[in-house]
Amino acid sequence: MRSLLFSLSLLCFASQTSLSWKKEEFRSCDQTPFCKRARSRAPGTCSLIATDVTISDGDLVAKLTPKDNDDHINPLILSLSVYRNGIVRLRIDEDHSLNPPKKRFRVPDVVVSELEAKKIRLEKFATENDPPSSVVHVGDGYEAVVRHEPFEVYVRERSGRRVLSLNSHGLFDFEQMRKKGEGDNWEEKFRTHTDSRPFGSQSISFDVSFYESSFVYGIPEHATSFALKPTKGPGVEESAEPYRLFNLDVFEYDHESPFGLYGSIPFMVSHGGTGKSSGFFWLNAAEMQIDVFAKGWDGESSSRIDTLWMSEAGIVDTFFFVGPEPKDVVRQYASVTGTSAMPQLFATGYHQCRWNYKDEEDVAQVDSKFDEYDIPYDVLWLDIEHTDGKRYFTWDSALFPNPEEMQKKLGAKGRRMVTIVDPHIKRDDTYFLHKEATEMGYYVKDSSGKDFDGWCWPGSSSYIDMLSPEIREWWGGRFSYKNYVGSTPSLYIWNDMNEPSVFNGPEVTMPRDALHVGGVEHREVHNAYGYYFHMATSDGLVMRGEGKDRPFVLSRAIFPGTQRYGAIWTGDNTAEWEHLRVSIPMLLTLGLTGITFSGADIGGFFGNPEPELLVRWYQVGAYYPFFRGHAHHDTKRREPWLFGERNTELMRDAIHTRYTLLPYFYTLFREANVTGVPVLRPLWMEFPQDEATFSNDEAFMVGNGLLVQGVYTKVIALNSSQEADGELYIDDGKSFEFKRGAYIHRRFVFSNGVLTSTNIAPPEASLSSQCLIDRIILLGHSSGPNSALVEPLNQKAEIEMGPLRMGGLVASSGTRVLTIRKPGVRVDQDWTIKIL
């Protein structure tokens, strides 16, 4: 039985040419030595064999050594772990007992602590002789296999059908660290920048295969199609680039490119005609490049998709997710990296932002205009110009002399404010934050050990070293009301530029040989820097509220685990139809890889949208999980009331529609918080065997009951059996009390002419509500009833037929719906309504 289905008119796409970004400022694969080397290797190059296989501390452990080890290369250590619900973890690192020059970086604070309790401690393994292999039971009919010679790891069903494999094509390579000798020169140069590379090449690469797969998806962030296109092999241009994962400040980005943007999530999901899915995740914070091979690249014809994963540094720390259903894969990934934080209710509404609302008078005028034009909104944002000389945690005293009073006026209407706080700190000896960070040694260092000095919005800047838990805790304390003077409980935070962006750095970011705590090179932690910054800010808001209120923090940079700390957006897009179009596959990809609270700037950050484009963007943006209008300071003002009466009406209706659907959205956010299943979903997640949906990235589902597609009708329908079901989640919309059971979770089922409300919350959950349901709408009911019987009240309710309205919009003159008005039932109680 399926829930109520909505099909909504949104947009028709026109094609325009995108503004070009400064491609020459960024490295291609050919300009990136580790990528160029890995791509040039031929299949079968790997000569490693697995030896000394044993069980140690509940894991299967082995040594990997070259078959003919004439060069006396140190062995690598392989460790394979198994977890409940179809998860296999494979780690490969240098042998620490042999004292390598430096321990490789292992990414901390991403894998949730709860995963350890799900570990299945291995006690034995089986052996197979053809070929020699070690086999362990995974559960639910799956096995993990380590083939000894040639070395390979794969997961299979007990029937023998393979699901996922690593090194099936012999492309595994692991460059071990070396001690620099006299005369060694390991430097790499790009444009005017030199990377000292004190430990030489330390890259890792390997092939991963997905069996019985039609397409692969994931590995954001790229502005490209949802189903990942091949980057190498038959039919692909030789100049094609792999998908790059390297967090960068890229503005006016190309709308159809594998080039990496602001975030990196090395998690890929496959799906095939059998309706089954699987997933692969590599926990690594260094730069990564990923090739998707075209069918037949190896001369074979199969239903398998092969990929090549390449990273500059780190270790092999990978997870195989067996699925088999699409939602199983995202749940398995969420059990490793965590589910989405439950947002406050206000954060799921509409946000109004601009670089910059210039002063308190401007803020008050914009706020009043929303009321004047009957346009709901919840949050007004301030960009960098609100500060005193771009010193964060300060206010421009001339433009914002009374920040607390300004926030309280918004708060009196139930509205909030968001201010921006970036990781670059102005190097000014009179600035309290810089002075304290310098004295305590809390900045990232350059390769010589001095505080790193780069250029960003304030000019000369240093960057807080967020890798350190101690420094993150200190940073969180900066958000207390005492330290952030002028802040109030209704003020929340926006973390921008946290890739990190360094205007005069290589590729507009921090040098790879910069140093973090413990001697960790920036190359090893780069993609996680913004994640730790986001974490520290979010934890700071929780500290500020003494653990009572949920935080709201928006981040531009992303990494696995970001979903636990707040929302993200797709960065500096452009006012073009193609950027509106590509926002859908970008957000679908983010949701599939755990980041469900995401959105794109309505109207495009750069440029001036034509009225039709802006209207269409509001109409689709009303279904983004994160719904915010934002614009560059060089653009014309574009608040919804500035484009004529008809366009204002259309944008107002789109925003009203969002607010009409807020209970549904909030329920979906709770589902994501519990299970990891995203709010925005690809069609094949709900219809896994419908092959027509596999490459569709213009239609999408919001939950399992709202279908958004480029047609000009609006429908709420019962299925062909005159049945439907759905859920509703309610809490106080603000605090963490829902974790202690203070919530309502109801299921509504319509069958045989009866609508039933039942409790599906666990027995310990309880929240009383006096809220009455005002009306119930059914479309597709075949009869023409006159009334309804409400039980246990034993009273009748009126029924009327009329057009469907949502947020002021009328579906069509021919679309009639049945409306039960004022049934008098409470949202937190059991009841039935029978159509008479």
From TrEMBL:
The lineage of its organism: Eukaryota, Viridiplantae, Streptophyta, Embryophyta, Tracheophyta. Gene3D superfamilies: Glycosidases, glycosyl hydrolase (family 31), Golgi alpha-mannosidase II. The keyword Cell membrane does not apply. Residues 341-668 form the Glycoside hydrolase family 31 TIM barrel domain. Residues 78-291 form the Glycoside hydrolase family 31 N-terminal domain. Residues 1-20 form the signal peptide. Keywords: Glycosidase, Hydrolase, Signal. InterPro entries: Gal_mutarotase_sf_dom (IPR011013), GH (IPR017853), Glyco_hydro_31_AS (IPR030458), Glyco_hydro_31_C (IPR048395), Glyco_hydro_31_N_dom (IPR025887), Glyco_hydro_31_TIM (IPR000322), Glyco_hydro_b (IPR013780). Residues 676-714 form the Glycosyl hydrolase family 31 C-terminal domain. Pfam families: Gal_mutarotas_2 (PF13802), Glyco_hydro_31_2nd (PF01055), Glyco_hydro_31_3rd (PF21365). Belongs to the glycosyl hydrolase 31 family. CDD domains: GH31_GANC_GANAB_alpha, GH31_N. It comes from Brassica rapa subsp. trilocularis. This is Glycoside hydrolase family 31 N-terminal domain-containing protein.
